[in-house]
Amino acid sequence: MGFQKQGKGILGKRASLLVFSLLVALLLSATPASATNLEGTWKWRDTIVAAGVANDIPPGLIQAVMAVESGGDPKALGGQSMGLMQIMPFWFKAGEDPWDPTTNIHKGAQILRQCEDKAGGWHPGEDWTKAIACYNSGSIHGNVPGYVSKVRGAWIALAAQGA
After folding, report:
1. DSSP letters along the chain, please?
2. Predicted confidence (pLDDT) at residue 121 exceeds the cutoff of 50
3. What is the CATH number of the domain that holds 94?
4. Residue 82 β-bridge partners
5. 3 lies in some domain
6. φ and ψ at 25, to 5 degrees?
């Protein structure tokens, strides 16, 4: 009795091809969600820049958060979060319209500013990771690596587009 090499047969080859095809499809679809949401954010660029200047926040970061949160849809609603920057109602003062794009963008920039201040302020060489985590979780120690990764990926992609 010797060792005999057994072929996979037609079913084994098809199964291998199917598994390989599924892996390729998963890899191709693994592009961060934020990368597909960038286009809708450009129409808000002037307001984003103004909010960034007013709050000392990089406009590209604000735009990246918007890309991840709403893809630039001013009517976005996720749970209780609303608008372009997906902000919870308690952040708005009486008389502020959370659905107004300008109000929503400026409020989002203010929240990012507060988060960065909680993190000790920005210093050259830092990457805003704690502020991004805080924007999503409310804490600079929030464990939201997927969210931070999406925002950072969107920010890099936006920078490549001139943001």
Report:
1. --------HHHHHHHHHHHHHHHHHHHHTTS-GGGGSSGGGGGGHHHHHHHHHHHT--HHHHHHHHHHHTTT-TT-EETTEETTTTB-GGGSPTT--TTSHHHHHHHHHHHHHHHHHHTT---TT---HHHHHHHHHSSTT---HHHHHHHHHHHHHHHHTT-
2. yes
3. 1.10.530.10
4. 77, 87
5. no
6. -60, -40
Residues 6+ away with beta carbon under 8 Å from 56? 113
Q: Which residue has the tokens 């464990």?
A: 143
Token digits of residue 4 = 């005999």
Domain that holds residue 151: 33-160
Taking a C-beta distance cutoff of 8 angstroms, is the pair 84, 71 a contact? no
Number of separate domains in the chain: 1
Provide the pLDDT confidence category of residue 127 given band limits of 50, 70 and 90: confident
**Alpha-carbon distance 107 to 64, whole Å?**
15
Instruction: Confirm whether pTM is higher than 0.85.
Output: no
